[in-house]
């Protein structure tokens, strides 16, 4: 139903766009005299600057990939092509399974997709996924919208470009320039597959572990893509209409198909040799008791846990997700007069993909028991010592032989009987642009357009356990009627005892009670209105006396609005999905902004000795957000080419990444984190006191009664929990607004870039703010966006990408104060 709604809206917008364009196209009559040839109005797309002037090269270095290079790559996925460029760090795409969003995104310089702006013909591509950062959603545009066969070139600009394009262009810009002047009929068909012969040295490791794999050559991972292009020039070349339709299908490729990935390896063998290892959350169970960790051996014995019970989770993950995509659209333009060209763009896309993970089940640290002394949830599970499903050995290890009362156990048990966890990911989107451009008078040009973009999202999950039902099904007692059967304590409605205490004890009836489907739907919308004017003042004498060309200016205004909704189901809202990592909360919010901008470029020297070109470029942009804050961005750059073969470019730019809707309005929760640093406010693994002082932990909400009693995390990940406000007790995060980033880069010698980057924040030092009272610090909770590989590990306040209680504590205690993002 949701996809049908988007389709209906897409059709209405497409009809409107084409009707608006057709309304100004005259009907040709046979008796009309032949019109004299006139030069058509043409659009020149320059990435990184709105100033187009003869004899000037942009101060921002741009890498371009042309249509011929795209064709030679033979790639059916735009993200695969971009990932071959050194400026791009692979991000979401068809090769991601665990944590996949179903999108394809681009990440410049590993600064994050939320700091990379994506354009089509110099105009924004709307956001794709409405999810928050905890689910890898960053309001990033989905590259699946772009038909590869119609791309004329791809421009990649690394470096801040906020003064030209607005917020989010901190890392740079990727601009897809489309072939909107195609003429003729063309059918592009591509088919590909992987031919692989397994001959990796890892085969000896697999043989030692008894793990099966393909011994012969394999043909798999097949991809099919077909695109139909139709273009026609009309009205004696004054207009063009180009349409396309495409279909793409990708077959799934599991890691089990390769010998080098068929098992999870660790260098823990003799001399650091690799051996097959895996997760201790295994099909035999791992039960953490006061007497040690145990597993249910296939023989039925309750034996100490060892590596032989580890679960190999690699084979069920995808190297390439199965994916199916349909897309269609059109580009049209028509020269109404010598001074007016109308144009429109329409693009529609439906993409369906399946992500798959290893089976879920009961994960360490997700139990719902409460420490009987401190009253703090400890992640354990209450197990009845009178459970008739348990053997005498199990009762002895867990309950010290007692057959009454309860014991608290840490349980990790893989639901192999229920199969892998899956997510059916659907994205349906459309984008429409209607505009007009042309020449006002000699030396003056204008361009004005409206854009509407929408994305409908759905995520249907399967193979997950309910944590509440799991708690019920593991707390088992004898039937009060005395017949010796096992029942759930308190006999919750529909509860079936979960028999993980005996080999082969799990039945379909148990799985039917424990497993729950999850449904997540959402919607994003972006609207843009822009109008700008470019003037060549050199035609009016505004130029340096020794130059032919003069000052070129561009000024304009832009209005933009963003809106997003997210509708999780009850289990997601209540954080009841085992292994999900965090709760998913509803969202229905938006914002808008007005902007004014100006750019100027002037040639200083041209074709002089040691100055083939010397030019200056500058720009400024003012943005006023409906959220109550304003930003200023600017740039100034110098371009010097002593000869045609050598060029020096230096620029000083101030770029801004304003918060997106999810970061502003979605309540933050503690997300899945694999940190090995430990919680400084928890007891150590050996039972010792916390490494942080009571005063430091108090700043994060740990009371004096709780200090020293926070249990150490039993897993290598923080899977659930919320950070409670120390004043109100509300379980959410707050964060101040105002962090801006200052960037500078220089490019030397024909495009080799040498850069230095710095940033500053406007809300004051977190270290100082968090030393104040809870009321004073409430708006300055330390959020982190742990960015790897950006010259160092960076901790920033840039409206937080991932929120985790551990990071809050580290920052609030003054351990982390470096707020640089590059």
Q: How is this structure best described in words?
A:
By secondary structure, the chain is mainly beta. Helix content is about 10%, strand content about 40%. The protein has 14 helices and 34 strands. The protein has a 15-stranded antiparallel sheet with strand order 8-9-10-18-19-23-24-27-28-29-30-31-32-33-34. Strands 14, 15, 16, 20, 21 and 22 form a six-stranded antiparallel sheet that branches. It is elongated. About 50% of the residues are buried.
Question: What descriptive keywords fit this protein?
Answer:
single chain; 822 residues; 15-stranded antiparallel beta sheet; 6-stranded antiparallel beta sheet; 34 strands; disordered C terminus
Summarize model confidence as the mean pLDDT: 80
Strands of the widest sheet, in order across it, are 8-9-10-18-19-23-24-27-28-29-30-31-32-33-34
Structure class = mainly beta
- First CA to last CA: what distance? 43 Å
* Global shape: elongated
Using only C-alpha atoms, the radius of gyration works out to 30 Å
| Low-pLDDT ranges | 20-39, 719-822
Q: What portion of residues belong to β-strands? A: 35-45%
How many distinct helices? 14
State the oligomer.
Answer: single chain
Q: What is the β-strand count?
A: 34
The major beta sheet can be summarized as: 15 strands, antiparallel
Q: How helix-rich are the residues, as a percent range?
A: 10-25%
Layout of secondary structure:
Blueprint: H1 2-22, E1 62-66, H2 67-73, H3 78-82, E2 88-89, E3 107-108, E4 116-120, E5 123-124, E6 151-158, H4 162-165, E7 172-178, E8 184-197, H5 203-209, E9 217-234, E10 239-250, E11 253-254, E12 265-266, E13 275-276, E14 286-289, E15 292-296, E16 302-304, E17 318-320, E18 323-337, E19 340-357, E20 361-362, E21 381-384, H6 392-399, E22 406-414, E23 421-441, E24 444-465, H7 467-474, E25 476-478, E26 486-488, H8 508-514, E27 515-536, E28 552-568, H9 570-573, E29 587-608, E30 611-625, E31 630-641, E32 648-655, H10 661-665, H11 694-698, E33 739-748, E34 752-761, H12 766-769, H13 774-777, H14 805-812
Parallel strand pairs: 4-7
Antiparallel strand pairs: 1-6, 2-3, 4-5, 6-7, 8-9, 9-10, 10-18, 11-17, 12-13, 14-15, 14-22, 15-16, 18-19, 19-23, 20-22, 21-22, 23-24, 24-27, 25-26, 27-28, 28-29, 29-30, 30-31, 31-32, 32-33, 33-34
């Amino acid at each position: 139903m949701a996809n049908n709604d988007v389709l209906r809206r897409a059709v209405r917008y497409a009809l409107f766009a084409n009707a608006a364009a057709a309304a100004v196209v005259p009907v040709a009559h046979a008796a009309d005299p032949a019109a004299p040839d006139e030069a058509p109005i043409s659009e020149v797309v320059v990435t990184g600057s709105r100033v187009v002037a003869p004899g000037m090269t942009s101060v921002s270095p741009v890498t371009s990939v042309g249509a011929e290079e795209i064709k030679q790559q033979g790639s059916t996925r735009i993200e695969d092509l971009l990932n071959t460029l050194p400026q791009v760090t692979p991000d979401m795409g068809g090769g991601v399974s665990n944590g996949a969003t179903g999108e394809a995104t681009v990440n410049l310089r590993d600064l994050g997709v939320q700091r990379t702006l994506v354009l089509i013909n110099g105009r924004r591509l709307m956001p794709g996924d409405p999810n928050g950062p905890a689910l890898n959603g960053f309001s990033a545009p989905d590259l699946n919208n772009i038909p590869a066969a119609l791309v004329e070139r791809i421009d990649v600009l690394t470096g801040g470009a906020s003064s030209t394009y607005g917020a989010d262009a901190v890392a740079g810009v990727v601009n897809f320039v489309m072939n909107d002047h195609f003429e003729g009929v063309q059918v592009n068909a591509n088919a590909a597959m992987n031919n692989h012969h397994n001959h990796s040295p890892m085969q000896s490791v697999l043989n030692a572990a008894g793990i099966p794999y393909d011994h012969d050559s394999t043909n798999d991972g097949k991809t099919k893509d077909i695109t139909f292009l139709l273009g026609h020039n009309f009205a004696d070349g004054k207009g063009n209409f180009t349409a396309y339709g495409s279909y793409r299908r990708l077959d799934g490729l599991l890691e089990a198909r390769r010998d080098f990935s068929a098992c999870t390896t660790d260098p823990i063998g003799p001399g650091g040799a690799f051996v097959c290892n895996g997760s201790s959350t295994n099909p035999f169970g791992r039960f953490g008791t006061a007497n040690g960790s145990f597993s249910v051996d296939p023989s039925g014995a309750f034996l100490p846990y060892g590596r032989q019970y580890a679960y190999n989770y690699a084979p069920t993950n995808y190297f390439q997700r199965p994916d199916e995509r349909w897309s269609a659209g059109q580009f049209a333009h028509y020269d109404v007069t010598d001074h007016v060209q109308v144009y429109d763009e329409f693009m529609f896309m439906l993409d369906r993909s399946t992500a798959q993970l290893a089976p879920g089940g009961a994960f360490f640290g997700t139990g719902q028991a409460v420490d009987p002394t401190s009253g703090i949830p400890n992640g354990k599970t209450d197990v009845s010592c009178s459970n008739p499903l348990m053997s005498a050995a199990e009762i002895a290890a867990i309950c010290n032989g007692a057959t009454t009362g309860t014991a608290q156990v840490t349980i990790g048990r893989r639901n192999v009987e229920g199969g892998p966890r899956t997510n059916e990911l659907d994205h349906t989107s459309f984008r429409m642009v209607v505009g007009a451009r042309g020449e006002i008078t000699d030396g003056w040009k204008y361009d004005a357009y409206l854009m509407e973009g929408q994305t409908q999202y759905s995520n249907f999950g399967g193979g997950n356990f309910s944590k509440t039902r799991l708690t019920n099904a593991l707390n088992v007692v004898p039937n009060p009627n005395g017949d010796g059967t096992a029942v759930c304590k308190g006999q919750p409605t529909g509860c079936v005892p979960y028999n993980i205490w005996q080999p082969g004890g799990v039945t379909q009836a148990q799985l039917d009670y424990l497993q729950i489907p999850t449904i997540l739907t959402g919607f994003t919308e972006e609207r843009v209105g822009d109008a700008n004017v470019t003037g060549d003042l050199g035609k009016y004498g505004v130029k340096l006396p020794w130059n032919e060309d003069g000052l070129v200016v561009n000024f304009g205004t832009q209005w933009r609005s963003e809106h997003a909704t997210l509708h999780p189901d009850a289990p997601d809202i209540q954080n009841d999905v085992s292994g999900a990592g965090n709760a998913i909360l509803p969202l229905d919010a938006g914002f808008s902004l007005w902007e004014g901008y100006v750019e100027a470029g002037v040639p200083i020297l041209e074709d002089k000795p040691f100055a083939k070109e010397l030019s200056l470029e500058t720009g400024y942009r003012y943005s006023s957000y409906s959220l109550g804050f304003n930003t200023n961005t600017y740039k100034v750059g110098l371009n010097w080419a002593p000869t045609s073969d050598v060029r020096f470019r230096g620029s000083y730019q101030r770029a801004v990444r304003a918060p997106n809707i999810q970061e502003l309005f979605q309540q933050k929760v503690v997300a899945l984190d694999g940190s090995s640093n430990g919680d400084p406010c928890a007891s150590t693994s050996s039972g010792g006191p916390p490494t942080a002082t009571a005063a430091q932990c108090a700043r994060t909400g740990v009371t004096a009664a709780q200090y020293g009693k926070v249990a150490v995390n039993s897993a290598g990940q923080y899977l659930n929990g919320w950070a409670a406000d120390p004043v109100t007790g509300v379980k959410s995060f707050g964060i101040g607004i105002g962090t801006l980033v200052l960037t500078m880069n220089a490019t030397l010698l024909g495009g080799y870039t040498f850069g230095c980057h710095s940033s500053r924040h406007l809300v004051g030092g977190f270290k100082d703010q968090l030393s104040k009272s809870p009321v004073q610090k409430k708006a300055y909770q330390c959020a982190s966006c742990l960015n790897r590989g950006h010259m160092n590990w960076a901790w920033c306040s840039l409206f937080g990408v991932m929120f985790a209680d551990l990071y809050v504590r580290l920052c609030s205690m003054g351990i982390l104060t470096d707020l640089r993002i590059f």
